[in-house]
């Protein structure tokens, strides 16, 4: 059309009104809305003419904006150069995303430009986000040595950051942005209208940089950002349409958006102008990036740059605070502002958890990993890390980044904190500490200052969400104006004298309870003027707030004549307060019910001076709660010039008047917080003054110094407004005897840690009156008991208190600092940090951040002001912290009577630490009759009605969580019960159906007399009737058939435990995808052919096992067979496999089209895959097709491997093939793990495959990719995770080219992908140890290049230079005499090793990056695992753990492991014998808390009939008296293996006990070691044969 219709009128130009920003001396940044016409016009008229315009963009933006820019190009040209031939406009569209920012894409664009014959007079435009800008800028910088370049940033990040400054780059394997150039764009066009299509997360991403820039540069701008979050977000959301083209059409929000963006861009432009090449000033823009980048390196691409920087900003602000340069107020404001724009602010932020998963997050953000990344930061000077240190919001400490010690950074990014005792000298000095302001006093002061007359400077105000909300609301009501001074340390309130106006919008109070109560009265003071008719103010809050009560207050106000109505729910916010003219707050006589909250009383009192009549407030309705808070209000009102008279116990008179603001008001510190520094002085023998709490204080906890510390032996000097405490010499605190702490319950934790070391005066402190502390943030009484136990301090907990039995300070000593669990409770953390400051070995406080609730800077104070040693700690995980914090919903079992519901349920409950309930028993208990009696007396219907009622109560209340619930067999018969079960499933619970072998069940029922009998033969009919019902209301299924090969009853029990563990998520049994892993494909037609022993050999080295359903005999003829029969056959095969192997199962039905053998229908295949999810297959392989999305959405806890196989290797090609990219995308849309398999035609296909993997695989988005065929073998070697493997013992490989784990390991070793590691046994004497033979045989069997030798040493210190420090060190076994002395050399201990207090296994854990030479040593203990395994196998069922008792001989490191093992086995009565009794005593002291009875005996004959005896003494020559073996069916285990028959074993054998020789334990613990070192299933047979070969030859 262009040719023929030349004369057609061109549409009018739409030239935007723009704002220009200067950079490097020219006004080349253009901001506005709808810039396309303006842009081309500007380019054609102001920039050098070009022959070709090349516009590069990505496909997202192309779809949205490319046509517009093309059209505009023509229009602008026609207007400017009518008649002249238009230059060329070429466009190039790339895939979106960071992967496009590569050298390959750059060459691709360049080659295309050469093809298009572009010349030096080309102008290149980048339309897109930072990816396009960086990449295309680099093309422009180097194309023919540089051509003209224009940026058209479309993401917020690109606008305020990446487009400005001329930095261009591409990513390489070595890292991001490592290759590039400085190349300034000639223009930058920021069209803010396009932000309306930017995804919300991307918008937040850019806001991180905007907030960062304001934080380092411009305090005023920061204030604006802080106050305008809603407005700015609205501007973006509503930015569409043509609004904004001209100033006249620009909305208020658009103006705000432009203001904010332009301001940020201007700072960046300014900095670039003054420091183009980043020599100093420009480094400031890296605020938040030192730590942010390290986080990004771990979490990208799941988490965006700006999200990581947001967290980095907060953490770096905390570094500044820790260094003493920045106040907590600023840190809190920064975090709050980032959150307001949808950004995360902490390393465990819920946003990050949602993106990465909690466990992954924790794993990847290990502090040491982050430090490793920071070590190679470009910004470092040598090894010195540099951080931009804020001096306040809007200014930095230096005009460049500041050198910061590693230790400080490490501390801030750590989860835990290690507190070391304060040196005597530091503690002796007198210190002054001002804890944060009291919340109650802060809120009252704000309210009165706002209503008062004159200006008040409030100091030490608490900055919390509560006070923030209060302040914002009071400002919105025009009650006052405010300003901050001294970096936020002082709030200046210009009081409004009680003249309140109607706020412009609803007042949002979040979940700030105090603010809501206070303001409910305040809002009645609003004077809406003459236009008052119908005007009102709405007070509202978040969902939680909308449930909190406020009815007594509202009732009282209404009765007084106030116009208040509930907008939603009766009795709660939102409230609408009407402002009919002249109404206000009438005053006079007011009656108020004050038994629920004293805040109602304070609310009325605080506003009372402004009522129209003097107020007489009468408190009615029972005992007034929290009188001290009412006293506080009255006292503070006096300080603001208003005298309240208390005329009777519950009656107050408030005269009319106005508050007169004092010029300065210092908010008293929080008295509960003040107990910690004061207690610090008490325990360390130092002196501490809290300058603003004294005897005049109205806070209950203010009495702590006088009532608790003075009687404990401290010198306390108290004035009306200050308190000074001087502690007695260390270790000289006196116990309190009985003390009632009712008036200061929150301070009991502080008292308890002092009492723990107060050995003077009887040494026992009994704290009472604190019953409410059972139900605070955690059960604090139990928490104190359990955590003090870690220091060896004994406590007894009571309903209303706790008894603490002190232990001498010096005796708290232990080799490893105790690790204190804080239950996320700030008070637990702070009180234990006080104890740690004096305990000889200090202590680890596991959750550092929980102090944020009241005193975020506590650790700074503890280190800087008080002088304790404080450093970061990375506590090892404890069982209770794994998994989700909320206990999983209960698991319900349904199935025929007699199938084993109770037996299995009990077994699972025991193994998984759950409760168990049998609903039939429960029903009999509740009703008080047996079931046959109920049915006989009341009939079946009555019975079913009871059953339904109880089931409902059980699933919703009594046993809703953490329980295994076994239902009666007929539960599914009633419709109501089925609905209850389905609802349980819908909520995320598990209902497991036990599928019986009906022959067994019928036989069992015939013998059972406790339940109404079925008529002969009926059981089968009943089952037929119920079968469908069971299936319909369950989501898991277990086959209970002991007649299957290898599936005896104990295997069924194991299978059930595993299924429940899986269904509840407690033991998900998943493969670790952060390191190479393999699964072995079983190809036999019948799984029963794999005897357990053979299968153990087959799976050695693997991490999962694949059930190839299509290869099963059962599938032959699947086209015609009955589907139900087929599925049942496969279920049996699945069950056998689960009985013989604990490894996760990959369930696969491979179709013929994709190289498998399945020839059945799609519906049968789908039915099988769904069944696999029901059976609890950990992984289900689903081929990518039309059914895959449905299966994916029903996958429950199974993970779907979405696979596509091209057995021909013709369609799926790895080079830049669209097909491969598309299949990957589709696989990711319907799978947790993608699997793409091709066929290699040439060897180079392996390289291409590997490159594809490099581009697309990460632990978060795993990809299995390889080539079939002989030529493709190398791609299997290089496959990153879950490589399918075969084994020589298998008849056939599952696919052409499949190789073994050993072959893969050998190839990886040769290829340089699996470095050789050195392992050794450390100890003495060890010359004859079979360990080297065992481990070397294991390495050989798996093709691993490692070696295991001996390192004879009697001193642990020698091990560092000899072994641990060597770069190829892989791990070590530790034996006598080093098991305990090696502990100080470890960087961390596992919970087991820590509890046992001995290490027998050293594991080298590598640093984060492969290149990092740093590594750390993890100390573990597998001795106890060896004992547990051997005892479990040898024990007779006659001796259950509950009745068993054990004798341990010896008291060294091995004995400690033995005791821990006995505890793991559930044995609760243990005796200990040792030649040197004192050693036994100290052992018993360490473990007493784990047992009902743990006692030392003087001589062996004192032992009474143990059922288990464990010997731990090498070369033991003791005489074991015959009486010891009087118990029947006992087990004796000797850890010593020289000689084979030790005196213990000889004696046991004589008495026909089971015996476990030491060599068996040696093998078992060694197998566990091997697994921990290699992260692979150990080749157990090879290892144990090697030991026996050596051992039998020697002994
Ligand atoms: N050169 C520098 O100084 C500098 C500074 C900071 C960051 N960067 C680089 O910038 C890159 C990140 O930039 P980014 O955050 O803009 O990511 P991006 O370029 O990947 O864009 C984010 C996503 O948003 C889409 N998008 C962008 N604008 C849109 C719009 N208006 N409407 C709809 N969709 C839109 C994109 O297609 C993309 O999918 C990184 O590579 C980083 O290294 C460079
Ligand atoms: Zn950045």
From TrEMBL:
<feature type="binding site">
    <location>
        <position position="378"/>
    </location>
    <ligand>
        <name>7-phospho-2-dehydro-3-deoxy-D-arabino-heptonate</name>
    </ligand>
</feature>
<dbReference type="InterPro" id="IPR031322">
    <property type="entry name" value="Shikimate/glucono_kinase"/>
</dbReference>
<feature type="binding site">
    <location>
        <position position="289"/>
    </location>
    <ligand>
        <name>7-phospho-2-dehydro-3-deoxy-D-arabino-heptonate</name>
    </ligand>
</feature>
<feature type="active site" description="For EPSP synthase activity">
    <location>
        <position position="850"/>
    </location>
</feature>
<dbReference type="Pfam" id="PF24621">
    <property type="entry name" value="DHQS_C"/>
</dbReference>
<dbReference type="GO" id="GO:0005524">
    <property type="term" value="F:ATP binding"/>
</dbReference>
<comment type="pathway">
    <text>Metabolic intermediate biosynthesis; chorismate biosynthesis; chorismate from D-erythrose 4-phosphate and phosphoenolpyruvate: step 6/7.</text>
</comment>
<feature type="region of interest" description="Shikimate dehydrogenase">
    <location>
        <begin position="1316"/>
        <end position="1595"/>
    </location>
</feature>
<dbReference type="InterPro" id="IPR010110">
    <property type="entry name" value="Shikimate_DH_AroM-type"/>
</dbReference>
<keyword id="KW-0511">Multifunctional enzyme</keyword>
<feature type="active site" description="Schiff-base intermediate with substrate; for 3-dehydroquinate dehydratase activity">
    <location>
        <position position="1235"/>
    </location>
</feature>
<dbReference type="InterPro" id="IPR013785">
    <property type="entry name" value="Aldolase_TIM"/>
</dbReference>
<feature type="binding site">
    <location>
        <position position="289"/>
    </location>
    <ligand>
        <name>Zn(2+)</name>
    </ligand>
</feature>
<keyword id="KW-0418">Kinase</keyword>
<dbReference type="InterPro" id="IPR036968">
    <property type="entry name" value="Enolpyruvate_Tfrase_sf"/>
</dbReference>
<comment type="similarity">
    <text>Belongs to the EPSP synthase family.</text>
</comment>
<dbReference type="InterPro" id="IPR022893">
    <property type="entry name" value="Shikimate_DH_fam"/>
</dbReference>
<dbReference type="GO" id="GO:0003856">
    <property type="term" value="F:3-dehydroquinate synthase activity"/>
</dbReference>
<dbReference type="Pfam" id="PF01488">
    <property type="entry name" value="Shikimate_DH"/>
</dbReference>
<dbReference type="Pfam" id="PF08501">
    <property type="entry name" value="Shikimate_dh_N"/>
</dbReference>
<dbReference type="Pfam" id="PF01487">
    <property type="entry name" value="DHquinase_I"/>
</dbReference>
<dbReference type="InterPro" id="IPR046346">
    <property type="entry name" value="Aminoacid_DH-like_N_sf"/>
</dbReference>
<keyword id="KW-0521">NADP</keyword>
<feature type="binding site">
    <location>
        <position position="145"/>
    </location>
    <ligand>
        <name>7-phospho-2-dehydro-3-deoxy-D-arabino-heptonate</name>
    </ligand>
</feature>
<dbReference type="InterPro" id="IPR013792">
    <property type="entry name" value="RNA3'P_cycl/enolpyr_Trfase_a/b"/>
</dbReference>
<dbReference type="InterPro" id="IPR056179">
    <property type="entry name" value="DHQS_C"/>
</dbReference>
<feature type="binding site">
    <location>
        <position position="161"/>
    </location>
    <ligand>
        <name>7-phospho-2-dehydro-3-deoxy-D-arabino-heptonate</name>
    </ligand>
</feature>
<dbReference type="InterPro" id="IPR036291">
    <property type="entry name" value="NAD(P)-bd_dom_sf"/>
</dbReference>
<dbReference type="Pfam" id="PF01761">
    <property type="entry name" value="DHQ_synthase"/>
</dbReference>
<feature type="active site" description="Proton acceptor; for 3-dehydroquinate synthase activity">
    <location>
        <position position="278"/>
    </location>
</feature>
<dbReference type="GO" id="GO:0009073">
    <property type="term" value="P:aromatic amino acid family biosynthetic process"/>
</dbReference>
<keyword id="KW-0808">Transferase</keyword>
<feature type="domain" description="SDH C-terminal">
    <location>
        <begin position="1558"/>
        <end position="1587"/>
    </location>
</feature>
<dbReference type="Pfam" id="PF00275">
    <property type="entry name" value="EPSP_synthase"/>
</dbReference>
<dbReference type="InterPro" id="IPR006264">
    <property type="entry name" value="EPSP_synthase"/>
</dbReference>
<dbReference type="InterPro" id="IPR000623">
    <property type="entry name" value="Shikimate_kinase/TSH1"/>
</dbReference>
<feature type="domain" description="Quinate/shikimate 5-dehydrogenase/glutamyl-tRNA reductase">
    <location>
        <begin position="1436"/>
        <end position="1494"/>
    </location>
</feature>
<feature type="binding site">
    <location>
        <begin position="154"/>
        <end position="155"/>
    </location>
    <ligand>
        <name>NAD(+)</name>
    </ligand>
</feature>
<feature type="binding site">
    <location>
        <position position="268"/>
    </location>
    <ligand>
        <name>7-phospho-2-dehydro-3-deoxy-D-arabino-heptonate</name>
    </ligand>
</feature>
<feature type="binding site">
    <location>
        <position position="205"/>
    </location>
    <ligand>
        <name>NAD(+)</name>
    </ligand>
</feature>
<feature type="active site" description="Proton acceptor; for 3-dehydroquinate dehydratase activity">
    <location>
        <position position="1205"/>
    </location>
</feature>
<dbReference type="InterPro" id="IPR013708">
    <property type="entry name" value="Shikimate_DH-bd_N"/>
</dbReference>
């Amino acid at each position: 059309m262009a040719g023929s219709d030349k004369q057609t009128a061109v549409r009018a130009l739409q030239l935007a009104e723009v704002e220009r920003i200067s950079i490097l001396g020219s006004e080349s940044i253009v901001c506005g809305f709808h810039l396309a016409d303006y842009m081309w016009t500007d380019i054609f008229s102001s920039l050098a003419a070009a022959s070709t315009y090349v516009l590069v963009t990505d496909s997202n933006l192309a779809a949205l904006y490319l046509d517009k820019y093309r059209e505009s190009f023509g229009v602008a040209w026609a207007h400017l150069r009518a008649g002249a031939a238009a230059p060329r406009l070429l466009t190039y569209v790339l895939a979106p995303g960071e992967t496009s920012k590569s050298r390959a894409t750059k060459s691709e664009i360049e080659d295309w430009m050469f093809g298009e014959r572009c010349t030096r007079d080309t102008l290149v435009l980048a339309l897109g986000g930072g990816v396009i800008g960086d990449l295309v800028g680099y093309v422009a910088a180097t194309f023919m040595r540089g051509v003209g370049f224009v940026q058209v940033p479309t993401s917020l990040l690109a606008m305020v950051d990446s487009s400005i400054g001329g930095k261009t780059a591409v990513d390489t394997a070595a890292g991001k942005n490592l290759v590039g150039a400085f190349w300034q764009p000639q223009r930058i066009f920021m069209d803010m209208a396009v932000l309306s299509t930017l995804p919300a997360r991307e918008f937040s991403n850019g806001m991180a940089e905007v907030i960062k820039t304001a934080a380092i540069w411009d305090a005023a701008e920061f204030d604006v950002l802080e106050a305008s979050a809603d407005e700015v977000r609205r501007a973006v959301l509503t930015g569409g349409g043509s609004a904004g083209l001209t100033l006249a059409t620009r909305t208020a929000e658009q103006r705000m958006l432009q203001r904010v963006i332009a301001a940020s861009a201007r700072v960046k432009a300014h900095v670039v102008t003054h420091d183009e090449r980043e020599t100093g000033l420009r480094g400031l823009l890296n605020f938040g990036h030192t730590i942010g980048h390290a986080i990004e390196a771990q979490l990208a691409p799941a988490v965006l740059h700006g999200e990581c920087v947001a967290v980095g900003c907060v953490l770096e602000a905390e570094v500044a605070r820790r260094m003493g340069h920045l106040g907590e107020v600023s840190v809190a404001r920064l975090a709050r502002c980032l959150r307001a724009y949808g950004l995360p602010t902490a390393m465990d932020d819920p946003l990050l958890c949602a993106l990465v998963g909690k466990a992954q997050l924790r794993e990847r953000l290990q502090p040491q990993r982050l430090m490793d990344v920071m070590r190679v930061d470009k910004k470092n000077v040598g090894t010195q890390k540099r951080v931009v240190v804020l001096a306040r919001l809007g200014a930095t400490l230096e005009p460049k980044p500041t050198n910061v010690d590693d230790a400080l950074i490490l501390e801030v990014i750590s989860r835990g904190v290690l507190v070391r005792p304060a040196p005597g000298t530091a503690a002796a000095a007198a210190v002054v500490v001002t804890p944060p302001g009291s919340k109650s006093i802060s809120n009252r002061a704000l309210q009165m200052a706002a209503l008062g007359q004159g200006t008040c400077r409030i100091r030490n105000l608490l900055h919390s969400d509560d006070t923030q909300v209060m302040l914002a609301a009071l400002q919105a009501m025009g009650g006052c104006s405010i300003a901050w001074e001294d970096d936020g340390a002082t709030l200046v309130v210009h009081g409004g004298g009680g003249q309140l106006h109607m706020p412009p919008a609803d007042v949002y109070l979040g979940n700030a309870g105090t603010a809501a109560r206070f303001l409910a009265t305040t809002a009645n003071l609003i004077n809406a003027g003459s236009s008052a008719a119908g005007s009102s103010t709405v007070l509202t809050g978040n969902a939680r707030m909308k449930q909190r009560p406020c009815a007594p207050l509202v009732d009282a106000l209404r009765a007084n004549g106030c116009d208040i109505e509930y907008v939603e729910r009766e009795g709660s916010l939102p409230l609408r307060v009407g402002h009919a003219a002249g109404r206000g707050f009438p005053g006079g006589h007011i009656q108020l019910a004050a038994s629920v909250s004293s805040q109602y009383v304070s609310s009325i009192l605080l506003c009372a001076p402004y009522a129209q009549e003097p107020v007489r407030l009468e408190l009615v309705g029972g005992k007034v709660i929290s009188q001290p808070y009412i006293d506080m209000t009255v006292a503070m009102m006096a300080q603001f010039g208003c005298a309240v008279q208390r005329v009777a116990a519950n009656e107050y008179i408030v005269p009319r008047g106005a508050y007169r603001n004092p010029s300065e008001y210092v908010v008293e510190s929080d008295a509960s917080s003040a107990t910690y520094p004061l207690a610090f002085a008490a325990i360390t023998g130092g002196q501490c003054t809290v300058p603003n709490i004294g005897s005049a204080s109205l806070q209950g906890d203010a009495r702590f110094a006088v009532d608790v510390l003075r009687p404990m032996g401290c010198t306390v000097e108290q004035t009306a407004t200050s308190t000074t405490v001087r502690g007695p010499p260390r270790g000289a605190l006196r116990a309190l005897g009985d003390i009632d702490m009712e008036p200061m319950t929150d301070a009991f934790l502080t008292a308890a840690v002092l009492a723990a070391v107060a050995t003077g005066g009887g040494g026992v402190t009994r704290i009472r009156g604190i019953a409410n502390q059972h139900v605070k943030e955690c059960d604090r009484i139990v928490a104190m008991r359990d955590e003090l136990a870690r220091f060896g301090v004994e406590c007894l907990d009571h309903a209303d208190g706790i008894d603490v039995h002190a232990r001498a300070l010096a005796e708290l000593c232990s080799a490893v600092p105790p690790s204190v669990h804080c239950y996320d409770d700030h008070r637990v953390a702070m009180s234990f940090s006080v104890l740690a400051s004096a305990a000889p070995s200090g202590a680890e406080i596991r959750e550092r951040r929980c102090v944020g609730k009241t005193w975020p800077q506590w650790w700074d104070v503890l280190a800087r002001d008080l002088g304790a040693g404080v450093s970061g700690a990375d506590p090892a995980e404890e069982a209770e912290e794994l998994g989700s914090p909320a206990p999983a919903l209960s698991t319900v079992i349904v199935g025929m009577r007699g199938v084993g519901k109770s037996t299995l349920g009990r077994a699972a409950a025991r193994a998984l630490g759950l409760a168990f309930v049998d609903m039939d028993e429960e029903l009999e208990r509740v009703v008080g009759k047996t079931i046959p009696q109920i049915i006989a007396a009341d009939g079946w219907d009555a019975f079913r009605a009871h059953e339904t009622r109880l089931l409902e109560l059980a699933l919703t209340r009594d046993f809703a969580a953490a329980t295994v619930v076994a239902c009666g067999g007929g539960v599914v018969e009633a419709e109501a019960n089925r609905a209850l079960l389905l609802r349980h499933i819908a909520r995320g619970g598990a209902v497991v159906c036990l599928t019986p072998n009906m022959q067994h069940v019928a036989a069992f029922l015939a013998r059972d007399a406790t339940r109404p009998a079925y008529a002969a033969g009926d059981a089968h009919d009943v089952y037929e009737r119920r079968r469908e019902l069971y299936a319909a209301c369950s989501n898991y299924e277990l086959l209970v058939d002991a007649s299957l090969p290898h599936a005896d009853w104990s295997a069924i029990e194991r299978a059930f435990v595993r299924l429940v563990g899986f269904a509840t998520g407690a033991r998900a049994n998943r493969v670790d995808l952060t390191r190479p892993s393999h699964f072995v494909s079983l190809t036999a037609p019948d799984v029963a052919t794999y005897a357990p022993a053979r299968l153990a050999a087959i799976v050695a080295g693997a991490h999962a096992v694949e059930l190839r359903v299509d290869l099963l005999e059962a599938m032959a003829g699947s086209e015609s067979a009955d589907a139900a029969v087929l599925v049942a056959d496969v279920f049996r095969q699945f069950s056998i496999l689960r009985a013989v192997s604990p490894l996760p199962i990959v369930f696969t039905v491979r179709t013929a089209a994709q190289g498998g053998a399945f020839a059945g229908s799609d519906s049968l295949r789908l039915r099988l895959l769904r069944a696999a999810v029901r059976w609890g297959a950990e992984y289900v392989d689903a081929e990518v097709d039309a059914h895959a999305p449905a299966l994916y959405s029903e996958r429950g806890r199974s993970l779907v491997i979405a696979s596509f196989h091209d057995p021909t290797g013709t369609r799926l090609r790895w080079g830049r093939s669209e097909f491969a990219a598309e299949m990957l995308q589709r696989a990711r849309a319907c799978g947790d793990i993608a699997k793409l398999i091709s066929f290699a035609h040439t060897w180079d296909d392996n390289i291409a495959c590997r490159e594809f993997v490099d581009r697309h695989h990460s632990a978060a988005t795993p990809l299995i990719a390889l080539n079939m065929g002989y030529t493709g073998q190398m791609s299997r070697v290089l496959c990153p995770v879950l490589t399918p493997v075969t084994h020589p013992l298998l008849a056939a490989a599952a696919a052409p080219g499949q190789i073994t784990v050993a072959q893969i390991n050998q190839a990886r070793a040769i290829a340089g992908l699996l470095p050789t590691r050195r392992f050794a046994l450390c100890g003495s004497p060890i010359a004859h140890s079979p360990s080297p033979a065992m481990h070397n045989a294991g390495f050989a069997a798996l093709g691993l290049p490692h070696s295991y030798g001996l390192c004879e040493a009697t001193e642990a210190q020698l091990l560092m230079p000899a072994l641990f420090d060597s770069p190829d060190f892989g791990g070590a076994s530790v034996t006598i005499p080093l098991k305990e002395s090696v502990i100080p050399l470890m960087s961390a201990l596992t919970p087991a090793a820590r509890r046992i207090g001995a290490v027998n296994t050293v594991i080298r854990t590598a640093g984060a990056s492969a290149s990092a030479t740093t590594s750390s040593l993890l100390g573990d203990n597998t001795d106890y695992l060896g004992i547990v395994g051997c005892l479990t196998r040898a024990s007779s069922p006659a001796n259950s753990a509950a009745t068993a008792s054990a004798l341990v001989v010896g008291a060294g490191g091995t004995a400690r492991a033995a005791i821990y093992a006995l505890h793991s086995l559930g044995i609760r009565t243990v005796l200990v014998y040792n030649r040197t009794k004192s050693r036994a005593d100290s052992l018993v002291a360490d473990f007493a808390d784990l047992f009902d009875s743990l006692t030392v005996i003087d001589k062996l004959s004192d032992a009474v009939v143990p059922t288990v005896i464990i010997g731990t003494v090498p070369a033991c020559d003791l005489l074991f008296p015959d009486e010891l073996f009087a118990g029947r069916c006992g087990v004796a285990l000797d850890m010593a293996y020289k000689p084979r028959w030790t005196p213990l074993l000889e004696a046991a054998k004589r008495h026909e006990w089971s015996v476990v020789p030491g060599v068996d334990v040696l093998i078992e613990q060694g197998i566990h070691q091997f697994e921990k070192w290699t992260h692979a299933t150990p080749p157990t047979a090879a290892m144990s044969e090697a030991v026996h070969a050596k051992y039998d030859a020697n002994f």
